[in-house]
Every structure is written in C-alpha cells, then in structure tokens.
Amino acid sequence: MNGFSQRLRRTSPMWGSSRNELVPSKPPRMNGWSWPPQAFQVVGWLVYSYLAIVSFGIYIPLLPQPWNHVLYSLTGIAFIVHFFTHIAAVTIDPADASVRAKQNYSNPMPLFDRTKQPHVIQDLHCYLCDVKVGPKVKHCGVCNKCVEDFDHHCKWLNTCVGGRNYWCFFVALSSATLGVFLLVVVILFIFIQHYLDPNILRTAPQFGSIPGNETWLAFLPIAPIRTSSAGLLILAFITVMLSITCLLLLCHLLGFHFYLFYKGISTYDYVKMQRQKEARNRDTESGKPNDAKTHNKTTQNKKNSIDCEPALSQSSSTCKFDDRGPLSSRLSESICTELEIFKKSAERENSFHYGTENPTENTAICIGLLD
C-alpha cells in the first residue's frame, strides 16, 4: 500500500501504428459546457427533467396531508441541491492553476513528439500545456489539459473530476441518490394505495367534482389535467422502473466512492492498483517463474515500482477488489461496468493519458479514467 502513496508517477502515451507517430492535436476543454456535449450528459439532464416533472407534477400532489408537504420539502431539497451542485461541478474548471493562468483554451495544443520527449509530464513540466505542474497533476487526454488532484474523467459531467470540483460531484451524486430513493417510495405507495384504498389519494379539493375512481388528475393544484386510472398506473410503472435503474447505478457509484474514502485513495489510484494486480496475475498464469521471482524481488526492494501498460483499453476486463468483504462484493459489478464503459470509449478516442515522471525513481504507473 505504501507504493500507491508515492506522489511521483509516470505513464506512457497511447501509441499509434508507429512508435514515432504524432498524436493529432486539439484545443483543451475548459469545462463540461465545452462543445460537443457527451451523450451521457444529455441523457442525464433528460432523466433529471423527467423525474422532476413527474415527481412534483403528478405523484407527490396525490399524497394525503401532511405527507405531501413533507415529501415536497425533502424531495425538493434533494432535487435543488443536486441541480446547483451538478451545475457547479460542470462549470468549475478542474485544471491546474498554471494551466488556468494561461487562459488559452481556443488554440490547438502542440503535437507530442515521442522521439523528443518520452513522457508528456517530465520533471514536473507538461510539454503539451507548456507549464510547470504539481506532483499530483495528471494530463487528461479527453480534456487535453493538466488536471489538479485528478480523480477521473466523468462522461455524465463531460469534464474531469479533480480537486477543485470533487466535492461538488460527490454532493450531486449523494443528493441524486436521495431524491430518486424518495421518488421510488412515493410511487410505490401510490401504486399500492390505488388498489387498497384509492380515496386516500383523492383528498385534493379538485377531486370533489369527479365521481368514481377511474378518472384522476395530474399537475395539481395549479393546472389539473384529467387522466385515466390505467394511464396513471402505466406511467407509474415506467417511472418506477426508470427510477430503480437510476437508483441502482447511483448506489453503486456512491458506494464505490465511500469505498475509496475508506481506503484513502482516488479513482485514479484504484485503477492503478487493479492494473498492477492484473499484471501480476498475467505473469503468474503465463508460467514464468523467473519473471515472477524478479517481480517479487523488485517489489520488495522498491515499494513504489508498478507495472505499466501503454493503453488501458489493452488491459484485461476482469477486476476484483483487494478486500473480499461484503462491501467489495456489492461494488465489484458496478466498478467492472464503469471500467468497461471507459475501455470502450478509449478505443473510440484518438487520445492518450499521462501522469508525471521523475528520472530519479523507477516509478511507472499508468493513468486510468472512469466515467
């Protein structure tokens, strides 16, 4: 574990067909609003808008008093907090201070020539951004800039999550989980009460002139719109299925970050650890005892030495937690899914990802991005 607490890191860029091939340049991205938007980003905002409309326009108004006021308050706080923290996480530029000081996001970045420099960041100097950086800075190939306290590149935000916007990201994730959970509880209550005692859901004054239980009202009390009982239940079923899907994904991601808190590492560090473990497993399975002995001896003598591969997309898709406790087993499926998403996207991107390198140490760690 001491090997991962070292602050000196090095990575290799993704090579093309030739070792000396130049990687096409592109302007750096300022934040999550930079064009073009990611598909996940658009889907996220559409789902948020839909859940907000059905929550406050259809289902919460059907709750009896005082529960409707309680859910208005709790769900409203969750949705509002998520909205503003999501906006903040997308808007904040996570780049290193030296990169932000240049304020040059419109010009293309210089080409990286591996024949001249073996690493993008060497001796705490980024040859693409052309600035001095700190030891915890990483160069993101998607945003094409150095990110301070890099954690991961998030496609849902369309920007990197680093030291400057991590807590906004975490609060947005937590509030989204709480809001969707409350919505699931509300819809399940309405679904059950519709069959047990529908009169509990028809306490609004507007239902006084509507006899029977086959006609319901949506968007109470401002703009009541009549709908059928079947339409209300079908929409409730669709919404609860979507909400449960979102809740599972959010809980997995939130649980993963709690796991990172427990371990005291970042997403970047977790990916490094997984790749190191996969490299050891491949050496063991390949039946090379001499290489395994050499690797073990190197690990004992130099605790900060880690195996490195040129591209994350080339690594194995199998991932496991080091601790095989209950928390690890619940999170493993989600983390593998997140890594698979990144690996597939990395194959579609003509980009490469970098860390730092110090010539006085034999540190070699590969960067990984997690959506």
What does this structure look like?
The chain has 371 residues and is mainly alpha-helical. It has 8 helices and 9 strands. Helix 2 packs antiparallel against helix 4 (166-196) and helix 4 (166-196) runs antiparallel to helix 5 (229-263). The model is unreliable at 1-23, 295-335, 344-354 and 356-371 (pLDDT under 50).
Keywords:
371 residues, mainly alpha, three-stranded antiparallel sheet, 8 helices, 47% helix, disordered N terminus, disordered C terminus
Tally of individual helices: 8
Main beta-sheet strand count, sense and barrel state: 3 strands, antiparallel
Structural Rg: 25 Å
Terminal-residue CA separation = 25 Å
Task: Give a brief outline of the structure.
With 371 residues, this protein is mainly alpha-helical.
Question: What layout of secondary structure does this protein have?
Answer:
Blueprint: H1 39-59, H2 67-91, H3 97-102, E1 121-122, E2 125-126, E3 131-132, E4 138-140, E5 145-147, E6 152-154, E7 159-161, H4 166-196, E8 215-218, E9 225-228, H5 229-263, H6 267-285, H7 289-301, H8 326-348
Helix pairs in contact: 2-4, 4-5, 5-8
